[in-house]
Amino acid sequence: MKTPREVAESYWRAECERDLEAVLEHYHTDAVVQPPSGPSLRGRDEIATFYADELRDYPHLEVQIVHEVSSGDEASLEWEAVLTDHEGGRHPFRGVNIVRTRDGMFEWVRAYFDPALPEAVE
Predict the structure, then answer these.
(1) Which residues is 96 bridged to in the sheet?
(2) Radius of gyration of the chain (CA)
């Protein structure tokens, strides 16, 4: 069985490839995502809305897990990321995802990060 970190690493590879279908395959059909702002998203259709603008506006993403605390099917994963926009502007940000997995997929994810991206870094 995959650990929460292994599920997250696979998920972030799919997200970095900007492959929405592959991203959604990491979630159970009844999964719940709590983004840093807004209501909880339930099920893959609602979860897809969380990614729509990001995938459209930022064609490139880099993510690295920098710290992990885990126990069984639950983990807290601190990460650093950089989104790159269509003009090549780089937008670094960091956060923490608290996750629970079941059968090698996310059952729920609570994401903590500043939803307002910082200014672009050249």
Answers:
(1) 78, 112
(2) 14
Structure tokens belonging to residue 1: 């069985």
Number of structural domains, the chain?
A: 1
Total-model pTM: 0.91
Tens of pLDDT along 15-28? Answer: 999 999 999 999 99
Residue 77 forms beta bridges with which residues?
68, 97
CATH number of domain containing 23: 3.10.450.50
Residue 28 tokens, joined: 């159970």
Continuous segment of H or E residues that includes residue 9:
helix 4-16
- Quick check: 101 and 109 in contact, CB under 8 A? no
